[in-house]
Amino acid sequence: MTVTGQPLEKGSSSSGTSSELDVFRPIQYLGSKLRALPKITETIRRIGAPGQGVLDVFAGTTVVSQALAQTGFRVLATDAMGYSATFAKAVLGVGRAEDEDRGPLLPRALAVATPATLGEGETLFATWLAREEIAVLNGDGDELIAISQAVPQIWRPKGATDRQEDRFRAIHEAAGCPAYPFATLASTHYAGTYFGIRQAVDMDEIRVAIHAAHQAGEIDAWEESVLLTALLSAASDAVSSPGKHFAQAHLARKGKDLSFLRQRIVQDRSVDIRAAFVDRVSRIMGVAASGSCGHFAARKSLEDVLSERRMLPPFHVVYADPPYTAQQYSRFYHVPEVLLNYAIPRLHVHRGQVTRGLYPEDRFKSRFSSKRSAPGAFSDLLDLAAQARAALAISYSGSHTGETGNERMIDLDTLLRLCRERTSRVELIAHEHVYRQFNHGNSAVEGRDDREFLIVCEGLC
Fold it and tell me: pLDDT of 346-363, one tens digit each?
């Protein structure tokens, strides 16, 4: 099995089919199922048949969807998050034309990555860009940290020029609206925290260029999804945060040992967004399915899928990898969602201050991440499979010690009981590997041995 995208990982499988999989992971992701792909595909081949529809109802990075598609299934990939649906459209070839009249996409991606004119961010942050460029060239981590703590942002306007203040004021007044007229969403919100100033400016220019190309009819909807996936993948490469997600950027606080951060910030700020973007377009084109495969992708929560089931293409198997802890995925991946939608976010304010993570007010909240709501959410999942007369395979990460640092909202025994109340045909399959800890360093739980399981339910009623 070959994995391209966020960093290359390889694995092997006991089945010949899985060992030949070539999947693209767009972004670093909590609970990624990369190592579990052989077992998942092997299990779904046993309870379904190639050619049948498989609904991947929490598609995430789409690595499972890709593996199932390459194993011969017709895949329906859904997720409550827009970035996931965009990834799925790109890699599953949803809406892909068989004969591209516009010619190869890669040269057009190069054009998008090198716009003819300088963007708004170039002039808005010109002095800061020059200072940052010198620091990156010199490998000066201390200077990059100093820049990150001082560059004016919409939520931290101290030191802003008159022009920056005018821009911040205009953006504030347009909160909730598309940011294309301003073309500085990333550079006015995330420069100096999650990204470098140059990186944020480049992301703005590429995002606006993708929008313009689509509006002008130069790229179709599938090509747009490829370019957007490539941009978010490049952003995941560049993000400067623990674990390479977007819950919080690295923090240089007083009294903290900055030896690691000095080195890491140079490494992160050195990522060339434009080069990474073009590289990702090439990788996606190498794995994307043909448009004739009949795959489906949409931004839909489980609740949406349940209410709209009859309007979806038919499926015979449901695969589900829902969240299990109180940590909402929208907290860890809000930045890709904002960059995708490119609407000005209303930042959440807590105790009079914008949150450290710069979270939007309207983040999606999953019922699976609530102790009170999780049992009902799983009941709905079982209802979905039962109504479709489909087999159900659920991924579950358990805890050997019971003290994981991220408490499960539903324990394995309770989940199995819910399944057995609906059918006697329930099988628990343990993976050979253990689940990697989310916490690191002093916050990690000693002796933690989190097992991965598949729960298979057939004949649900």
Answer: 999 988 899 999 999 988
SS (H, E, C) 323-373: CCECCCHHHHCHHHHHHHHCECCCECEECCEECCCCCECCCCCCHHHCCCC
173 has pLDDT over 80: yes
Does pLDDT of 253 surpass 90? no
- Who contacts 328 (Cβ-Cβ below 8 Å, separation ≥6)? 363, 364, 365, 366, 369
Four-way CATH pick for 32-96+296-322+366-457: 3.10.250.10, 3.20.20.60, 3.40.50.150, 3.90.870.40:
3.40.50.150
Query: What confidence tens digit (pLDDT) does each residue in 88-102 have?
Result: 999 999 999 976 555
The pTM is what? 0.91
The model's pLDDT over 334-349, given as tens digits with 9 standing for 90+, comes to: 999 999 999 999 999 9
- Rounded distance, CA 226 to CA 289, Å? 12
pLDDT tens digits, one per residue of 142-169: 999 999 999 999 999 999 999 999 999 9
Domain boundaries, the chain: 32-96+296-322+366-457, 105-285
- Is residue 210 over pLDDT 70? yes
